[in-house]
């Protein structure tokens, strides 16, 4: 049996762990030794719920990144986004040493990563085979987040000079773009050619949607008890606030929009925040709203007539796999990329927020109301979502990924 270490960008969000935990659980169920590393509070709860080992922090302190959230919210592609994550050479050097300690301590046969550049670099330094689990627009061969625009502009910011300088200290060859490190020796794409298109030249395999849910998961009683006299709308914001002050990547705009538009509407609304606290400004919620910190995603999506969310890739996959249409308020360009893919497939609508002078994002509530009503009442949206759901059934998801990882480790 093999030793697998699953790593991911340690953000306090559920998107990345949602795609990795089902694969890790499948490998553990097949008898392999499996560990995960994400010390952030919300992912740690999901890892524990799956019965997986979340590695403790190594003795070396984990350095704190200095991320420009304003720049990170509006980027052409992953490579430009990485420039906002790693602008500081001292941080990159310290964080690389941290990940080297982590890998040396656990001594995996394979690192399985999703979007942690320095974990990937550490695997390269230690010559540990690397598999990556990516959405299509994170892969080096993609057209990036703004895929509907013209070719990528020249001269965009890049972290490559800093990454290459540190990598050179360990004998790792330089790369033209940092995103090249995200393409593992094995690259598996979450989604399908329809939802996450990549050129035929990309050395990847599609594994379909990945949705984490325990086999015995059930909706909370208050949600299960809702009758079918009114449409049920699931509002998922993810992390409403990433800091103590407003930032451009906050998803609190999703909650504000839903309350403004739906508080007096003849609908049931379930609001969830992904193991995050509901901001105090929303207490008390309107009478037709129920709040739960966390619900099993697939069960909730299947129970819903409509999803409203921020456009995260895992939210897109959950809704499509359930055949449930969406109205999306994307808060960063990566999420706008995902939302535009979904709307191009006819499975939902997009409402673009604008940045206000107060540092908060705002939307046109009338436009949002109109699109919610349109998606609820026009069966074409649900028909499109259900057609895509059916097409997704041919992919093996987490079990297919586990099988490919077993084949990969056997061949290295």
Radius of gyration: 21 Å
Low-pLDDT parts are: none
**What top-tier CATH class of the largest domain fits best?**
Alpha Beta
- Backbone shape: globular
CATH architecture of the largest domain: 3-Layer(aba) Sandwich
Indicate the structural class. Answer: alpha/beta
Strand order of the largest sheet: 3-2-1-4-5-6-7
Assess the beta-strand content as a share of residues: 5-15%
Mean pLDDT: 95
Order of helices and strands: EHEHEHHHEHEHEEHEHEEHEHEHEEEHHH
Query: Got a strand count?
Result: 15
Helix content: 25-40%
Q: What do we call the CATH homologous superfamily of the largest domain? A: Glycogen Phosphorylase B
Provide the domain count. 2
Distance N terminus to C terminus? 14 Å
| Largest sheet descriptor | 7 strands, parallel
User: What's the CATH topology label of the largest domain?
Assistant: Rossmann fold
In DSSP terms, counting alpha (H) and pi (I) runs of 4 or more, how many helices?
15
What is the oligomeric state here? Answer: single chain
Q: What's the quick description here?
A:
By secondary structure, the protein is an alpha/beta fold.
Question: What does the model show?
Answer:
This protein is of the alpha/beta class. It has two domains: 3-209 and 395-411, Glycogen Phosphorylase B (Rossmann fold, 3-Layer(aba) Sandwich); 221-392, 3-Layer(aba) Sandwich (Rossmann fold). It has 15 helices and 15 strands. It has helices at residues 15-29, 41-49, 69-72, 78-85, 89-106, 117-125, 160-169, 221-224, 252-262, 297-303, 313-322, 333-344, 365-377, 379-392, 397-411, and strands spanning 3-8, 33-37, 53-54, 110-114, 130-135, 186-190, 205-208, 232-236, 268-272, 289-292, 306-309, 326-328, 348-350, 354-355, 361-362. It has a seven-stranded parallel beta sheet. Strands 10-9-8-11-12-13 form a six-stranded parallel beta sheet, sandwiched between helices. The longest helix is centred in the first third of the chain and has 18 residues, at 89-106.
């Amino acid at each position: 049996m093999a030793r697998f270490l699953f790593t991911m960008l340690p953000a306090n969000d559920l998107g990345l762990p949602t795609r990795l935990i089902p694969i890790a659980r499948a490998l553990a169920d097949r008898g392999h030794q499996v560990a995960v590393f994400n010390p952030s509070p919300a992912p740690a709860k999901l890892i524990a719920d799956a019965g997986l080992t979340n590695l403790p922090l190594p003795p070396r302190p984990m350095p704190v990144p200095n991320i420009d959230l304003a720049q990170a919210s509006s980027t052409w592609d992953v490579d430009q986004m990485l420039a906002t994550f790693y602008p500081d050479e001292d941080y990159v050097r310290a964080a690389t040493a941290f990940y080297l300690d982590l890998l040396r301590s656990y001594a995996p046969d394979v690192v399985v990563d999703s979007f942690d550049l320095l974990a990937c670099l550490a695997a390269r330094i230690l010559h540990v085979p690397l598999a990556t689990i990516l959405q299509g627009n994170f892969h080096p061969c993609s057209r990036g987040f703004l895929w509907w625009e013209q070719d990528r502009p020249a001269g965009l910011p890049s972290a490559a000079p800093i990454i290459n300088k540190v990598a050179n200290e360990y004998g790792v060859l330089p790369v033209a773009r940092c995103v090249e490190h995200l393409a593992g020796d094995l690259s598996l794409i979450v989604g399908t050619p329809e939802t996450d298109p990549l050129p035929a030249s990309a050395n990847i395999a599609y594994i379909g949607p990945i949705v984490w849910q325990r086999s015995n998961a059930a909706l909370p009683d208050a949600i299960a008890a809702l009758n079918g006299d009114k449409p049920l709308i699931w509002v998922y914001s993810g992390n409403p606030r990433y800091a103590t002050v407003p930032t451009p990547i906050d998803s609190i705009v999703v909650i504000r929009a839903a309350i403004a538009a739906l508080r007096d509407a003849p609908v049931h609304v379930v609001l969830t925040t992904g193991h995050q606290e509901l901001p105090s400004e929303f207490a008390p919620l309107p009478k037709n709203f129920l709040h739960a910190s966390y619900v099993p995603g697939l069960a909730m999506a299947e129970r819903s007539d409509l999803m409203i969310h921020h456009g995260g890739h895992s939210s897109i996959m959950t809704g499509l796999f359930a055949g449930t249409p969406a109205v999306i308020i994307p808060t960063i360009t990566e999420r706008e990329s995902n939302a535009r893919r979904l709307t191009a497939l006819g499975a939902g609508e997009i409402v673009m927020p604008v940045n206000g002078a107060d540092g908060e994002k705002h939307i046109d509530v009338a436009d949002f109301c109109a699109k919610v009503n349109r998606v609820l009442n026009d069966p074409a949206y649900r028909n499109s979502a259900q057609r895509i759901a059916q097409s997704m059934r041919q992919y093996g998801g987490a079990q297919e990924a586990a099988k490919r990882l077993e084949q990969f480790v056997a061949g290295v």
